[in-house]
Each structure stands twice: as C-alpha cells, then as structure tokens.
Amino acid sequence: MSSSPGTARQITVHRYGSPGRGPKAYLQTGLHADELPGLVVMQHLLALLDQAAAAGRITGDIILVPYANPIGLSQYLFGKHAGRYEFDSLGNFNRLYPDLAAPIGDALSDRLGPDAGANVALIRAEANRLLAAINPRSEVDHLRLELMRLSVDADYALDLHCDDEAVMHLYLGTALWPGAADLAAELQAQAVLTAEVSGGEPFDEAVGGIWWQLAKRFPKAAIPAACLSATVELRGDRDVSDDLASADAAALFRFLGRRGLIDADPGPLPKALCAATPLDGTDIIECPHGGVLLFKQAAGATVAAGDLVAEILNPATGARTPLVSRASGILFARAGHALARPGLPAAKVAGPVPLPHRTGRLLTQ
Ligand SMILES: [Zn+2]
C-alpha cells in the first residue's frame, strides 16, 4: 500500500525449494530498520543457499526476506537515521502483529481433535484464510500483514535483530525450549530468554504463539508447538562485518540442514554456551534520571545481584547514582550511547529466577 501519491515501497523475497515439499523455514531481518547485522548475514546465507540449490540439495521450502522494513530504512530526522518506531504512528515496528489465536480457536473449536497432523493443517489453513481476509488500514499495517502472510504456516520462523551493545541472544516461546536448543548452540547464544507472552505482540510471538495459545485453550486436542519461531539478536548494532555475518550464516545453514531443509551434513552440534532463562528473570536496569552513563561492566560479563553495573554522572553536581543488578547472570545487552534519560534501559541481565518487578510487558518498548 502506498502511503502517499508518488511513493511505493517493496520488499524482496527469495524462495528456495518448493511449497509443500519438506518443512518450511522463513527468515527475515531488519524489522527494526536500524539493526543491520542481519542484512549482511542474509547475503552470506543466500550465497550458501544458491550453492545448495545448484547442487539440488534443497529439501524444504525456504523463504528469505533480506530487509523486512523499507519504511523504517527510509526514516531520517535531522541527518540521522531513526528505526525501531514508525514516524507516522509512533508504533514499534516489532509490535502489534495480529493475534490470530483467538479467531482461529473460535472458527475451529469443534474440529480440533486427537490427530496432531490434522490439527496443524486445519490451523494453518484457517490462519492463511484469516490473513487473506484482512484489509490493511495503513502502509505499516500492510507491511506487517505481508510478513505474516509469508510466514504464518512455517515450521521455522527466524526474525533476525540486534540490540545496542550485546552478545548473541535469543527470545523464544517457553514451549519451544528445549526443542530449540540446537539453534541456540549453533549460534553460540550466550542468553536464551523464554516467555509465553512477552507483551506487545512482537512478530515471533504472533507467528509461533498461535500454537501454545491454542494448546492451552483446547487441552484435550493434540496441538503441537508447530512453529519454532525465534527472535535472534545478532549482538549489537555496530557488530556489522563480513566475518561475523559469514559465521552466523554458516550456523543458520547448519541449523537448516539439521532440521531437514537442506541435504547437507551439519556435523556435530557445538557445545551450548547457556541454558534458557525466563524473560521475567531478566532484570532490565533503567536509568532513574538523566546524566552521563558510565558502565562498570561489559556486555557479556557475569554479574551477581547487588553488583554495580553502571553509574549515572550528574553533570551539574558531579554526583553519581549507582545502577545495580537485581539479577544474577549474564549482562547480555547494554545501552549503546552514554546520554542517560529517565526510563532508558541501561542494561539487561539474564537471571534464572523470576523477579517480582518483572510483570506485564516484559520487553523494552
Ligand atoms: Zn530489533
């Protein structure tokens, strides 16, 4: 949908294999537009898939969207690029995806039974039917809808993002762990954060959450977690290089091989670097006021509850406010710039124990 006369945007979609033959994987990147590591990973992955295709080794249905957000890529303000939120609606590009679980459940309530395969087929058909019937109301709604239409019936849906300064980490539905442990090990993730509902309807939950929401609503029916959907955080936004991207693309390629989408020997699974921890065990340490953020811990550091993570320097008085972790675990991400303001997430620490203050919307806005 064009947002204004004389403009038109497009996404590029690469397809390998054939629909209905083997498992289906969908990979997209750049949904937040200011997160570029995945755009390079996709090009390295495309080269590997081209080789596999030329050798007749694609055994599944693989879709790649190498930049998922042309709206966000075009947003400049005062000479600087601004992703994450859409200028028009001020909405986060990775929130507000349509929640299909409720209408699918309403439509199929008397047809879901003990046959898991039949249920998967019914649910996917209904999801496709619902998405085909939605008329988008804005350009950004249309973008969300097209990405859902490409992915909603996939067995694997990987959304490649990054944080500010960060180590490799994943967001997953609780039902997908430990099933997705091979993905985490291949990517050498240092944190895996699980939630049943993280709040805000991000893409990965809109696609994958259908399954565990329906399984909860219809406990007598056999409804598997039929889509391994994950948000993959490819480190920090400055970690853009061919070296990192080629290694990450090779890891994703091995994952697709291990899952039967490519006829290629993935070799032994690398040793996992972490276990999953609940997203409500992640302490998001926010700045209580403005000032200059001075970190005392690097991304990737292991910290204990009570440890000093950073200080906010008050430039008027020289006073320093300590920011302390309430979780014990890995500090997997921290703010990428030093100008603190109230509410800015300064650092994220993945702890194994749910924290009392972590309720409601569990993701940063
Ligand atoms: Zn992102």
Automatic annotation (TrEMBL):
The keyword Hydrolase applies. Residues 22-99 form the Succinylglutamate desuccinylase/Aspartoacylase catalytic domain. It holds the Pfam family AstE_AspA_cat. This is Succinylglutamate desuccinylase/aspartoacylase family protein. It comes from Oleomonas cavernae. Residues 1-20 are annotated as: Disordered. InterPro entries: AstE_AspA_cat (IPR055438), N-alpha-Ac-DABA_deacetylase (IPR053138). Its cofactor is Zn(2+). The keyword Metal-binding applies. The lineage of its organism: Bacteria, Pseudomonadati, Pseudomonadota, Alphaproteobacteria, Acetobacterales. CDD domains: M14_PaAOTO_like. GO terms for molecular function: hydrolase activity, acting on ester bonds; metal ion binding. Keywords: Hydrolase, Metal-binding, Zinc. SUPFAM superfamilies: Zn-dependent exopeptidases. Residues 1-10 have a biased composition (Polar residues). It comes from the Bacteria.
